[in-house]
Design goal:
globular, disordered C terminus, alpha+beta, single chain, 4-stranded antiparallel sheet
């Protein structure tokens, strides 16, 4: 698991520019690759025992696949960036749950983890949309489950390899389908950036578990995914508004209220629990993400329901060349 996340960190770092170049959904802000990389990096460092606290992982943690991923998932959730990063953090936290207490991965556990993860990711969004990384997660989970079912729950390494192969193959097919599932992607003749990022992450898992090289040929023929291509998002209409993110402790009722109110204010609402246990007052820790035209009402709502931490507000509009100063210091 540590090797997987470390490999995913390196791979997403290498591919972040190309992912950014085709990032036009849900907003053309050209940062999906960066957001995924930074979120996966947080997970990888936590899994390796180099979280900000600097504490070394215990022997018990080292021998528990679920505990390692839970630690990584919580770090990813706390430091998640953007839609894609937040959904990956949700995916990782959920995948850890069926693996708790197990010292090794198997096909039945992989199938259970992928299924739990894709269901949680779909449910974290108020308005989930097919043709995104959600569809790639779902396809991979279904493929792993089919292998597990076809081999009657066999937990051998051979069957695990078959399940990983099937999951990655299904992810490739799901990425190709994204172009025709979303009108904006079809018009731009590109596949979904988040979907490609999820494919890379899954291939890193396969590579780490099986001790094989990454399958670079998986990316051949994906429309728009070419380092020579221009940054497609730069030609898209400007996206007005901001992205607001924070972590906050809420009761279940306040969490439901916040989701409803944020749905009314904006879109791309993602809310997911950070950790599973409630505090003494019955509140849970949540990671919150929303796109709104104006940050002030959303921030006021958040503060009215609790004390947020790690609050960030960032512009959705992509800087264009015309926004940059010329050599004389005048805006072009």
């Amino acid at each position: 698991m540590k090797r997987w996340l470390g490999k995913a960190e390196t791979t997403l770092g290498n591919h972040s520019d190309r992912l950014n170049a085709i990032n036009i959904f849900p907003v053309a802000d050209g940062d999906t690759g960066t957001n995924l990389y930074l979120t996966v990096r947080a997970a990888a460092h936590a899994a390796a025992g180099t979280a900000p606290s600097g504490t070394a992982a215990s022997a018990e943690l080292q021998n528990d696949v679920g505990a390692v991923l839970a630690r990584a998932g919580q770090a990813a959730m706390e430091q998640a960036r953007g839609n894609s990063g937040t959904l990956f953090a949700v995916f990782l936290c959920a995948a850890a749950e069926p693996l708790a207490g197990h010292p090794r991965l198997s096909a039945p556990l992989l199938a259970a983890a992928l299924n739990r993860a894709q269901l949680r990711a779909w449910s974290a969004l108020s308005d989930p949309v097919p043709g995104t990384m959600l569809s790639v997660m779902e396809a991979a989970a279904r493929a792993a489950a089919a292998v597990d079912s076809g081999h009657d729950g066999d937990d051998s390494n051979h069957t695990l390899g078959l399940a990983l192969d099937a999951a990655v193959d299904a992810a490739v097919a799901a990425v190709v389908r994204t172009e025709d599932q979303l009108a904006v992607l079809h018009t731009a003749h590109v596949v979904d950036a988040g979907g490609v990022g999820m494919l890379l992450i899954l291939d890193c898992l396969r590579s780490a578990v099986l001790g094989e090289e990454l399958q670079d040929e998986l990316l051949d023929g994906l429309h728009g995914y070419d380092v020579q291509d221009p940054h497609i998002h730069a030609g898209m209409p400007r996206d007005e508004g901001v992205e607001v993110m924070c972590t906050i402790e809420l009761s279940p009722l306040d969490a439901a209220t916040m989701r409803q109110r944020l749905d009314e204010m904006g879109d791309s609402v993602i809310m997911s629990q950070v950790g599973g246990a409630a505090d003494a007052s019955g509140r849970y820790r949540w990671r919150v993400h929303v796109h709104v035209l104006d940050a002030a009402p959303a921030v006021a709502l958040i503060r009215s329901l609790g004390e947020p931490s790690d609050m960030s507000v960032s512009e959705l509009a992509v800087p264009r060349d015309s926004d940059l100063p010329d050599p004389d210091g005048h805006e072009r």
